Structure formats: C-alpha cells, structure tokens
Amino acid sequence: MTQAHNTLARRRWLMLAGASAITALVPTLGWSDGDEDEGDSGSSSTTAISPAATGLTGRMVVVGGGMAGVTAAKYLRLWGGSGLTITLVEPATTYVSNIMSNLVLNGSRTVTSLGYTHGNLTSKYGVNVVRASLTAIDTANKSLTLSDGASLPYDRLVLAPGVEFEDAYGLTQTDYETRTPHAWRAGPQTQLLRDQLAAMPSNGTFVMTIPKAPYRCPPGPYERACLVADFLKTHKGAGSKVIVLDENFPTDAANPYTAIQAEAHSFTQAYTVTHAGVVDYQPGVTDIAIDPVTKAVSYTDRMGVPHTVTPQVVNPIPPHRATGSSATGWLTQAGLANGASGKWALVNVLSFESTAAGATGVHVIGDASQCGLPKAGHVANQEAKICVDAIVRALSGQQPDPAPVANSACYSPITASTASWLTAVYQYDSVNKKFVVANNGGVTAGAKPVEAASASSQNFQQMNTWFNTLMGDAFA
Ligand SMILES: Cc1cc2nc3c(=O)[nH]c(=O)nc-3n(C[C@H](O)[C@H](O)[C@H](O)COP(=O)(O)OP(=O)(O)OC[C@H]3O[C@@H](n4cnc5c(N)ncnc54)[C@H](O)[C@@H]3O)c2cc1C
C-alpha cells in the first residue's frame, strides 16, 4: 500500500538518523492486519516511541485530525525526529471513518465501530492535540487563530481540513442533518440514513444523487447504490427501487455507463446484472430539486425530459469544496482557495506546498487540495507522506524528491459479502508538473487504473485487511 513511501522512509532514517534508529523504531510500529471491523478503543496502551535526535527543530502545526492530518502528524515525528514540536488542531475527540461507512447502511457495521481517537498521537508520538477549530490564518506572521481565541504560531503549517457541503437542490445544512442526509461525512447523518432505510416499506423507492466530479471518493456513490439495492431487495422486497441521479455525463452518448466516475466495469456489471431491475441508473441529469418535507425529487433527464418522483428516502450527495473555502471562510480569507472555482487549494505536488502568493511554509493535503490525485483516504495518506518527506528535506536544506510516487487502492462492496477493487500507481510528470497514472513503471499517456475482473467474497475479505492496515498506518 505505502511501498514507495515506506522505502523513502527507510532512506530518510538512514540519511538523518543512522540505521540504529530504524531498529529502535520498528518494534513500536505494530498494527492490525486482521479482519476485525472495529475502530480503535480510544485507549493508548502502547508505549512512546524513541524518535531519533535528527537535529531538526521547528514548530509544525497540522490542522485536521482525519486521514491526511493524522498521517502527517505521525510521520513528522517518525521522519523528523525528536526535536520537532508537533501540534494537531482538531475539534472532534473521535474521528469517524468515511471508509466502510456505506456498510453501516446495510447494517453490516456500526458508526461506533468506525470511530478512531487521537490518543496514540499523544502517547506514542508526542504530538500535542489541541481541541479547537482553526478560524483564521495570518500567513505573513505565520500564526493561526483558533475557535477558543488562542493564537498558535507555526514554522510549517499542514492543512488537512477535508471538505464542506454546499446548500444544493433547495436543501440547507439543517435539512441534511435532520431529514435528507447526505451522509458524505460519516457520523450522525450516516445513522440517520441507516434508520430511514431500515424503516422503509416493502418495495419502496430510494433516490440518491451524485454531484459533478471532482468529489470525495469517486467510486463511493456507486458503491452506496449497490449496498442499498442489496439491502432493499433482501429485506424489503424485490420490487424495491434505487434511482441514481448522476450529474456526470456519459463520455460515450451510446453507453450511459461511461458516466460512472470509477470502476465503470464493476458498477456496470452490478447495475445490469447483480442488481438489475432494482438500480435505475440515470446519468447526465440536470436541474435537480428536492422538497425536504414531501421528499419529491424533480429533475431533467439527459434527453431533456422533466420528471418528478416521490421516494420514501432521498439521499442527496451535494457538491462540495475544501473546508473553509466559502466566500467568508478562513481558507479563502487567507488567499489559499486558489484552485478551480475558488473551491480547492492549489498545491505544488512535489511538496503539497500552496502555490498562493505569500503562503511559504503552508501545505494543503487530502481532499481539500487540488493536485490531480483522486480525493480518497488512501490517497490522503500518500499525500501526507509526500508532504512530510518534503518538509523534512526542506528543514535539512534539501529540495523535495523530484520524482515522487503515490498509489491508490480502493475496495468497493457490491453486496453484503462481495467486493470489487481498483488500484493505480501515480508518477510525477515533470513536463506538466502533475501526477499521472503510471503504466509498467513509466509514464504512459492514457494509462488507467486497474480494476477487478469481478466482485468476489475473497475481495471482500481482503478489503477488511486493507482497511485495518490503512487505519493502523494513520491512527496506531
Ligand atoms: C461513504 C464514503 C466512503 C469512502 N470510501 C473510501 C474508500 O473506500 N477508500 C478511500 O480511500 N477513501 C474513501 N472515502 C474518501 C475518504 O474518506 C476521504 O477522501 C478522506 O477522509 C479524506 O481525508 P482528509 O484528511 O482530507 O479529510 P477528513 O478525513 O474528512 O478529515 C478532515 C478533518 O479535519 C477536521 N477539520 C475540519 N475543519 C477544521 C478546522 N477548521 N479546524 C480543525 N480541524 C478541522 C475535521 O473535523 C476532520 O476530522 C470515502 C468517503 C465516503 C464519504
């Protein structure tokens, strides 16, 4: 999973700390590779690591304790050594994993089981965790303002605040929280959507929407449609319907399934064979409007024909953007929301340092950045490592790695017991200064991620191992 950067890590330790430091570190890096589906216990029973005295110093502040931020904080200690002061700013005491959260909807997992705490960051890696939100950044004076009024100075700042959701289709944030949940940030909305599904009548109708790309987790909405279809036809009758309103358009007008944003082969198979007659996939829809009280959904199909349907449950996944990138948001106010439509933070992908004027020493990783990589948890973990590697090199007076490599692996449940997968390796294209999908170790135009030939129970088991390993790499 993290081969490229684990290799980098080994090189880094050899370079900065000597081989003995690696030996000292390795026994503390145990993490689960079993198939249990539990989050962490919230306890931090493991002992502190003994990081090397690298001679590097400085105030490192990481904002956001999710997939990207936690990985960055941990690896700053592992690769940067004992002299760094590392602070994580995160308001929530428990992070609920989005990954696997679609399995809450069919009752396979619980929201509680997907909870991870930041205890190990403090006890094992000596990271100061501050329970507050970032509210303003002063890039000129390298200082943050937090929600409790405190100021926090930094020498290097790593922003990993994830995404926020737009009021869309006539809905408000209150609607999302109370009656038409998007559940695209795992937590109470996931439970609300699960409860609504469990209460559906026999042979009822579920409608979900998919926003135009880019959005968080390209295969995630299509996976959700599969799991809901599987749950409804198993528990609520074969006459149940899952209507998928996708705002993305087919790339081939003759094949509607070419609108699918990831794992097109797997989801085409799922919609036309495995869940045929239940999933009604409608790409290229426009003008979606949702009444939060009656749940009536109106839209125009790609042939220009208007429709209205009134399902029992509606699940809008609204367009989203980097957290803090609204007109008055802190990312915008600091001039860092300089990506497409002012919704994302543009970065130099060699270091994930912001390209905004005056933002020296400010890095943006995870879903909030615009870097050419998919918005995914596995990728966020990779971005964090590329970023930390670049920071440690910079503190050592070196340039970033000129040829970073990242990979993405993703498993998608198709039913309650089978899954497909998708994987890709990304290499730096120095001409276009972006990541491109690599093919056979070389950059090949048109190379694509590889996906499973078919869904299987073996893939489902491997998915659990992949998930536990990824979460362990971040939180353990
Ligand atoms: C249903 C679903 C399924 C998914 N499945 C997969 C999958 O199978 N594989 C995969 O790789 N990815 C998957 N993803 C995508 C993955 O969850 C995200 O890409 C990943 O979480 C992004 O990491 P992040 O650190 O950028 O954001 P997050 O993980 O969302 O973390 C952001 C953190 O920042 C904090 N924060 C926000 N604002 C502030 C502030 N002002 N101050 C301080 N802290 C702040 C938040 O509280 C949060 O803890 C899925 C997503 C969904 C919704």
Provide a brief overview of the structure.
With 476 residues, the chain is of the alpha/beta class. The chain has two domains: 3-164 and 321-400, FAD/NAD(P)-binding domain, CATH 3.50.50.60; 167-318, FAD/NAD(P)-binding domain, CATH 3.50.50. The chain contains twelve helices and 27 strands.
Q: Largest sheet, if any?
A: 5 strands, parallel
Per CATH, the class of the largest domain reads: Alpha Beta
Percent range for β-strand residues: 15-25%
* Portion in helices: 25-40%
CATH-derived architecture of the largest domain: 3-Layer(bba) Sandwich
What small molecules are bound in this structure?
Answer: flavin-adenine dinucleotide
Largest sheet: spatial strand order: 5-2-1-9-21
List keywords for this structure.
476 residues, alpha/beta, FAD/NAD(P)-binding domain, 2 domains, 5-stranded parallel beta sheet, 12 helices, 27 strands, disordered N terminus, binds flavin-adenine dinucleotide
Overview of the molecule:
The protein is of the alpha/beta class. It folds into two domains: 3-164 and 321-400, FAD/NAD(P)-binding domain, CATH 3.50.50; 167-318, FAD/NAD(P)-binding domain (3-Layer(bba) Sandwich). 27% of the residues lie in helices and 25% in strands. A five-stranded parallel β-sheet has the order 5-2-1-9-21, with helices on one face. Strands 23, 24, 25, 26 and 27 form a five-stranded antiparallel β-sheet that branches. β6 and β7 (143-146) form a beta hairpin. α1 (3-16) packs parallel to α11 (377-395). The longest helix is centred in the last third of the chain and has 19 residues, at 377-395. The radius of gyration is 22 Å and the shape is globular. Bound molecules: flavin-adenine dinucleotide (FAD). Flavin-adenine dinucleotide binds at residues 63-69, 89-92, 95, 98-99, 101-102, 133-134, 160-162, 184, 216-217, 220, 323, 366-368, 375-378, 380, 410. Flavin-adenine dinucleotide (FAD) binds next to α3 and α11.
